[in-house]
Known about the structure:
Layout: E1 6-7, H1 9-22, H2 27-46, E2 53-58, H3 62-76, E3 80-85, H4 89-93, H5 97-108, E4 113-115, H6 119-128, E5 134-138, H7 152-161, E6 166-169, E7 191-195, E8 198-199, H8 208-211, E9 213-217, H9 223-234
Helix pairs in contact: 2-3, 3-5, 6-7
Amino acid sequence: MKTDFAATRDQIRELDRIAISEYGMDGLILMENAGRWCARVAARMLGGTEGKKATIVCGPGNNGGDGFVVARHLSNWGANVGVLLLARVEDVLRGSQEAAANLRIILNMGIAAREISSAEEAAQAIRECAGSDLLVDALLGTGTHGEIREPFFAAINAINECACPVLAVDVPSGLDCNTGEPLGTAVRADRTVTFVLNKVGFTQPKAREYTGQVEVAEISIPRAAIERLLAAARGVPPRSS
């Protein structure tokens, strides 16, 4: 669905709620669609996946879950994939059911998730991956607010020191999607794949230095739900079907 409307984090959260609770969509479907779209963009950035090296830097939540989906598809397409996880595997497996399911899949595929718990480990691990052909930022999502804490702060700064191209999943980690301002620090991505609708913060002039080129991914949220949100935001009745 093409629209120039840019949403806030609360509006995106409401769309997710409507899709799951009112339409009966499974969160796994949304995560799969989001991650696969990002994987396709990653493949384009790599100029083909066979034999290429991609590092996926994942957080403990659903943004990390999207990253696990990216890792699975890139591996299936012949890339040499490494996953850095800023959490304990066992904690993710006990957390969000969608992220847990996708982490379990990549582990069963033989894709190791390197656990990172400290700022020093995060910076060192990312520096070791500086020779990757692509780095995928799946650390923190649109719900992030407040100052970025360790080890995420160090990880973000280390990503920014890498010379390889960076793809951000949904939002560059550390960037407030409502204001377009960094929360102390933020990933400077070459491209950002954001989901469902553009984010209001991305329309701010300074945000471009963090988002790079923005692509909006359609992840199967029902069109009627999006039109309802747009109508409420604009104070006009939704377009009849």
